[in-house]
Amino acid sequence: MTDLTDDRTPGFIQHAAESVRDHLAASETLSSFLQGAGTLTLEERRLIVDQALVLLDQNYVHLPLKTAMHAVNPVQRLRVLRRRLERQKTHTMPPEWLFHAEMSEIFHSVRDLHTNYLLPEPFAGRIAFLPFLVEQYTDGQGPHFMVTHVAEGFSAPGFAPGVEITHWSGIPISAAVDLNAARFAGSNAPARRSRGIQSLTVRPLRIHLPPFEEWVTVSYVDEGGTQRELRENWRIVQNLPPMVDADAISTAAVAQGLDLDGDEAGRAKVLLFAPRVIAQEQALQADAPAPELRRGEISTSMPKVFKAQQVETSSGRFGHIRIFTFGVDDPVAFLREFVRLIGQLPQNGLIVDVRDNGGGHIHAAEFALQVLTPRRITPEPVQFINTPLNLRICRRHQSGASGIDLGAWVPSLEQAMETGANFSSAFPLTPEEGANAVGQQYFGPVVLITNARCYSATDIFAAGFQDHRIGPVLGTDENTGAGGANVWTHKLLSDLLAGDGATPYVPLPKGSGMRVSIRRTLRVGALSGTPVEDLGVVPDELHRMTRRDLLEDNADLFDQAGLLLKDRKPHTVSVTDAVSVNGSVQLKVKAANVDRVDVYVDQRPCASVDLTDGQADVTVPAAPTARAARLDGFEAGQLVASKTERIP
Known about the structure:
Layout: H1 11-14, H2 18-25, E1 28-29, H3 30-34, H4 42-59, H5 63-70, H6 74-87, H7 96-108, E2 116-118, E3 126-129, E4 132-139, E5 142-150, E6 164-168, E7 171-172, H8 173-181, H9 189-198, E8 202-204, E9 215-221, E10 227-233, E11 235-238, H10 251-254, E12 256-258, H11 260-273, H12 275-285, E13 297-298, E14 306-313, E15 316-323, H13 331-343, E16 350-353, E17 359-361, H14 362-369, E18 381-384, H15 388-396, H16 410-419, E19 427-428, H17 432-435, E20 446-450, H18 457-467, E21 473-475, E22 485-489, H19 490-496, E23 513-521, E24 541-542, H20 547-551, H21 555-566, E25 572-581, E26 584-592, E27 596-601, E28 604-610, E29 615-620, E30 628-635, E31 638-646
Parallel strand pairs: 15-16, 16-20, 20-21, 21-24
Antiparallel strand pairs: 1-11, 2-23, 3-8, 3-11, 4-5, 6-7, 6-9, 9-10, 12-17, 13-14, 14-15, 18-19, 18-23, 22-23, 25-26, 26-29, 27-28, 27-30, 30-31
Helix pairs in contact: 4-6, 8-9, 11-12, 13-14, 14-18, 15-16
């Protein structure tokens, strides 16, 4: 047990929730933390630059796009840096933080949150934090920046959720946000600004240099209109562990589509501002009673992944499911829990909310789409950039013997050696059978809520939602984060070529790391072939977050979602009875808002019937061994519902 009587421990930690108190008590000040930093040798710096050159020059799928769109040349910048390092001596090399700053700047220049330089120990796995969270809302006077969460136990005069920030260390808050946003690699302006706001108080040190200032001075106006100032020290603490080992040779690692910065920040916010989620997880692990749920909330076995509840809007009561992350090891278990939760929510309309979701397992994201639509899901295809190194990796794993099957891309990569094509052929990363294994499970109308922090696998989910015309997309920003790629780590790439005597990959020193966009994703449907990277998903409707949203649990946002749902009706089909008679199967079909049903038995078309008063009798001849019937329901010629049921 940590000694919380130590004078160096801030008072708010002594009063933090029990589930996180010991964890936070191990935090330290920024100045104390930095005493253990700065141990990279000159040779280690040179090695890091050499490995970055390999990844960006030979593996990075977006290099032509980024060079054209943003007028950058990260490969040449690395070559220049490498030449400077050759001329340096141990006693003349600059401070280590300057090396990290330049490496980070080179990687950030491509504006790709998949492609990162990851700082070594002691930064890896740590976060710098202040004990409160700032968010933006907009009204007729423009943007405002407000405190929305305060760590349990923290207090200051007049400081509580609802106070508005005016200045940040003497800089007008809007300018401070813009300065902060300029440090981030988001693909579009809304994404960068969103991250600039978040990083005011939460900074994952795996991705970013620690703050230069040891403390901040926050100027704010309390609820009584009094102008006040708060000075608060940055503290450093170990973050909660990731849910997936992205370095291991596994399906989960190879199928990653994750904004690491967003994922790290999300876990940090759980630690600091949602200790109840950690208490729920601890109770599940100990098979103990879970904390009491809020009214309308449904218990979940994945509290870090889902939150499901009923919400009251001005248009009625609807289901709401928040998906915080797709970062899971097992996409089938994810799908199973998703189906279970939405089955317990109101069936007249569903709000699927993926705001701030940085992605994760691409299979999980694309598996989830099928349960919301009668249409067959076409997973997004992905492409490698054509390089000799990518060809070697794919040849090494074309048989699937390692559990990783890259054989589909080999012929086009080989052909490119002659044709000079930029990219390989495009094939789905997500298995199509898995993306359609359970089919539609929710039959009411659905609306999707997005924002600029939706990234990677969540971009893919939002694009699939829109491309398959599942329902309207309601955005609180003009775009999603626009991360359209599958990302691999340097360690994973190195292991995929382990044992190859000519491998260009060598281990990185002192826990440093890198990630790179390895395969780009392309949209399907009406936008077939369009890359997701840098473009993202544009919502069908835009809602600017209001003060009421931030203080009253998204009240105005949910009202807007309710308006989009209220005029859309559920479409249902089902078999109410099935009887076998003389080798035939007689089905009683019931439906709502459906005028025609096509019947498939064991995937074979058998009948098409018009419905009277929402029901019909269907006889399927010569089907003595029939096992399952699929009912496709149509309204005015459009497929609106599909359900597969077992035949007893």
